[in-house]
Each structure stands twice: as structure tokens, then as C-alpha cells.
Design brief:
The protein is α/β, with parallel strands linked by helices and about 260 residues long. The chain contains eight helices and seven strands. Bound molecules: nicotinamide-adenine-dinucleotide.
């Protein structure tokens, strides 16, 4: 069982209604933090998650459904975070979308949405949360970037641009707050089997006339020397370390969890 080392801290995890974000929210609740779940999806299902997290870990859990494409909704989310958590001590910018396609064929509207959700939203949540962290003289910001924040692949230009941008923003925020115990780091996962990968796996299965599981194995094998998907729990475990006191001098790091992808 995890120690309650984050007891009483307030944590906002964007995109925590499923996937990696939900796993991180679980880890934070397990360590005693009060958590604001955020993301899109069926409100009934999200309410069940909220209730069970709160009951299981004896912490306060709230939820908000701001669409991060819209700055006014992000402002509402941050106001709600202040009113419920009291203070955003831990901010995890995790929400993200992924679409593939060659640059010249990429829909302008999809570019705009991807930059808004994957990059601009983090700028807005950080600019809202940092003054409170500085006043409290403690904070943890974790940005979920990607291997594509460090290296590129074809047909993912807008996603890569958004994640490289997030890595840059991470380093700048780390430096601006290096005078206090406020850290800002990025986690750069390789392939994690969550719904965000479905489009790519399904497209490969159709293109090669193979079944979905064979396509998934082929996709991960082509990118990760381990041949294994990264598990959400492995990303969450690193996030928990970054929240700990032991990680106090880890600042502006962009840490791959990618089965060896970026080591080649
Ligand atoms: P996911 O699709 O399972 O979850 C995405 C979350 O973001 C959901 O909670 C969704 O509601 C939220 N979201 C999406 N659009 C939103 C919007 N407009 N407004 C508010 N919330 C929105 O994906 P995941 O795999 O858990 O991805 C989480 C993060 O990890 C993303 O930033 C993604 O880019 C990154 N990542 C994922 C992988 C992977 O292979 N799964 C690899 C590297 C990085």
C-alpha cells in the first residue's frame, strides 16, 4: 500500500476520465491527495468513477467537464479547482488527442484543435495554477508529453509539434520556478494501449488485412525495442515519483517511458 505522503494536497489531472490520466488520478488519491477529475465522456460513468475513488481512498474527489478547446471553459475549470480543492498543489496536464495524416493533407481545423488541447490548454492551466503554488511555496507540475515530444515520425506532424511545444513549456516553467520547491517535468510515454491508439491500430489492420491484435503487436514492435506496450500504471508510477520529496531536484526533465524507443 502507498504511503499517504500527499495527504491534504489538491490535485488536478486533466483528461482523467479514462486512460493514463485516470491511472494517475488513482495514484494521487491512493497517496491521500484530494483530486479533481476532468475530461469528456458519459457523466454517469464519470460520476461512478468519482464516487468509487473517493470511497476507496477516503479523499475528496470532484469532477469537471470543461472542453479544453475553449479558453473560457478552462477558466471555469480553474475557478472550480480553486473553489473545491482550495489550492492546486499538483497539476497534471494529461488531456490530449491524436490524429494522423501527411502535413499537406491535414485538416486546418484538426491542427487548431490539437494545438489547443495538447499545448495551449497547458499554458492556461499553468498560468492559473502557478501563482497559488508560489504563494504556498510548493508545487508539482507534470506534463504528459510523448516520445513525439522528443523525436518525430511521419504522418504525425501536428501531434509532434504540440508535444515538442509542451516539452519546451515544461523547461521554461521549471526554470522560472527553480527558486522554490515547485518542479515542472514532462513524462514522455511511448505506446500505451488506450483509446487514443485505436485509430492507428484500426487503420493498420484495414491496410494490411490483419486482425486488430496482430496490428497492435506490429505497431508496437515497429517502434519499441521491448516489443511491449507501456502500461498506464508505469506512467503513473513515474508521476508519483515526480510528486515525491525525493524528486525535488528533478526539474525541467523530459523522461521517456518508451520500451527503449528513444534510446536507438
Ligand atoms: P485517452 O484518449 O484514453 O484519454 C484522453 C483524455 O483526454 C480523456 O479523458 C478525454 O476526455 C480527454 N480529452 C480529450 N479531448 C478533450 C477536450 N477537448 N477537452 C477536455 N478533455 C479532453 O488517451 P491517453 O492515452 O490516456 O492519453 C493521455 C495523454 O497521454 C495524452 O496527452 C496523450 O497524447 C499522451 N500519450 C499517450 C500515449 C499512448 O500511446 N496512449 C503515448 C504518448 C503520450
Amino acid at each position: 500500500m502507498a504511503s499517504r505522503e500527499l495527504e491534504g494536497k489538491g490535485a488536478l489531472v486533466t483528461g482523467s476520465t479514462q486512460g493514463i490520466g485516470l491511472c494517475i488520478a488513482r495514484g494521487l488519491a491512493e497517496r491521500g491527495a484530494n483530486v479533481l477529475l476532468h475530461g469528456l465522456g458519459d457523466p454517469g460513468v464519470i460520476e461512478d468513477i468519482r464516487e468509487s475513488l473517493a470511497a476507496e481512498h477516503g479523499v475528496k474527489v470532484y469532477r469537471h467537464g470543461a472542453n479544453l478547446e475553449h479558453v473560457d471553459e478552462i477558466d471555469e475549470l480553474m475557478t472550480f479547482a480553486g473553489a473545491t480543492l482550495g489550492q492546486v498543489d499538483i497539476l497534471v496536464n494529461n488531456a490530449g488527442i491524436q490524429h494522423t495524416g501527411r502535413l499537406e493533407a491535414f485538416a486546418v481545423d484538426t491542427w487548431n484543435r490539437m494545438i489547443a488541447i495538447n499545448l495551449t490548454a497547458a499554458f492556461h492551466t499553468m498560468r492559473a495554477a502557478i501563482p497559488g503554488m508560489r504563494a504556498a511555496r510548493w508545487g508539482r507540475i507534470i506534463n504528459i508529453a510523448s516520445t513525439h515530444g522528443l523525436v518525430a515520425s511521419p504522418t504525425k506532424g501536428p501531434y509532434i509539434a504540440s508535444k515538442h511545444g509542451l516539452v519546451g513549456l515544461t523547461k521554461a516553467a521549471a526554470l522560472e520556478n527553480a527558486d522554490l520547491p515547485i518542479t515542472c517535468n514532462a513524462i514522455c510515454p511511448g505506446m500505451v494501449r488506450t483509446p487514443i491508439l485505436d485509430e492507428q491500430i484500426d487503420a493498420l489492420a484495414r491496410r494490411e488485412s490483419i486482425d486488430v491484435e496482430d496490428a497492435a503487436a506490429r505497431l508496437v514492435g515497429a517502434n519499441q525495442p521491448s516489443g511491449e506496450f507501456v502500461r498506464p500504471e508505469q506512467v503513473s508510477a513515474l508521476a508519483m515519483f515526480l510528486c515525491s520529496d525525493a524528486a525535488r531536484e528533478v526539474r525541467g526533465a523530459c523522461i521517456p517511458v518508451d520500451g527503449g524507443w528513444t534510446a536507438r
